Amino acid sequence: MATAGTVTSSEYIRHHLTNLTFGPKADGWGIAHSAEEIAEMGFWAMHLDSMFWSIATGALFIWFFSRMAKKATSGVPSTAQGFVEMIVGFIDDNVQSSFNGKNDIVAPLALTIFCWVFMMNFMDLIPVDLIPWILDKIGIHYQKVVPSTDPNVTFGMSIGVFLLMIYYSIKVKGPGGFASELTMHPFESNNIVLKILFLPINLFLEGVGLIAKPVSHSLRLFGNMYAGEMIFILISLMFGSSIILSISGGALQFVWAVFHILVITLQAFIFMVLTVVYMDMAHSHH
Questions:
Q1: What is the per-residue DSSP string for the chain?
Q2: Residue 216 annotated in active site
Q3: Rounded Cα distance, 121 and 229, in Å
Q4: CA distances, 177 to each of 89, 172, 269, 284 (Å)
Q5: Buried b (16+ CB within 10 A) or exposed e, 133-148
Q6: Domain spans of the chain?
Q7: Which of 39, 62, 179, 285 has its CA 20 to 30 A from that of 7?
Q8: Which of 78, 216, 241, 242 is catalytic?
């Protein structure tokens, strides 16, 4: 159960939304102990909790799937193997229906993204006070355990997908073909003067659309998960106030957690589907 203790509601919320941050301080590099120190670190601030939990969930995914692959049998599968085969089949069906090109990296990429994002999102179902309370006992005062509520994580993943899209766009279509996509559409003309006039206009419009892809890709995941985490924190404020509010908070916590299972799965699916769609666009000739 979460409790605000002796701090105010705003302090409680602010504390739970603050990352464990490492960066340059006045007396050298170190971990920030206040919001002011975090602000002073600027660009070089690193969110240690987001890095740790994202790497930990990614390592857990790799370990579990590699273990199932080594133990896979053609006979009656175990429950775990059947679960993995179900996920792989689900991803394969979605890739085949959304990706029309030929690239052996797309299906493994989609599987990795779906499972990794789902596991990062799943951290949102852990009681908001549990891990911070445990770590506070050893002197770690800030801890955000849901990596997908950190825009640095979601932007990092979306930029990685964006760079792959640019790479395969140039590889499949050639530099000239990719440049033509950005400068010859949506306005076209056979008149050489109008064609030259349309070049900067098309480049601006297509460039905005191109840059918008990683931005919307990342912000969609971040916004939904951040809102879900905020609701969990707000419900946690109800505990400890009174018996009626505590019981009501427990009921709301359960209902929102059950609903949030759908949210975290849907967000992982959407992030994966958009990745496949972007890769399909990179392999499509217009």
A1: ----TTS-HHHHHHHHT---EEEEETTEEEE--SHHHHHHHGGG-EEHHHHHHHHHHHHHHHHHHHHHHHH--SSSPPHHHHHHHHHHHHHHHHHHHH--S--TTHHHHHHHHHHHHHHHHHGGGS-TTHHHHHHHTTT-------GGGSHHHHHHHHHHHHHHHHHHHHHHHHHHHHHHHHHSSS---SSHHHHHHHHHHHHHHHHHHHHHHHHHHHHHHHHHHHHHHHHHHHHHTTTTT-HHHHHHHHHHHHHHHHHHHHHHHHHHHHHHHHHHHHHHHHH---
A2: yes
A3: 10
A4: 34, 9, 31, 11
A5: eebeeeeeebbbbbbb
A6: 48-283
A7: 39
A8: 216
Of the residues 220, 246, 248, 284, which is catalytic?
A: 220
Task: State pTM to two decimals.
Answer: 0.88
Residue 5 confidence (pLDDT): 46
Q: Which residue type occupies 238?
A: M
> Which of the following is catalytic: 148, 218, 224, 236?
224
Residue given tokens 């849907």 in the structure block: 266
- Model confidence pLDDT, tens digit, residues 35-78: 888 888 888 899 999 999 999 999 999 999 999 988 888 777 78
Q: Is the pLDDT of residue 1 over 60?
A: no
202 is catalytic: no
Which residue has tokens 């599968």? Answer: 77
Q: What is the pLDDT of residues 250-267, one digit of tens each?
A: 888 889 989 999 999 999
Least confident of 10-14, 63-67, 121-125, 169-173: 10-14
One-letter amino acid at 285 equals: H
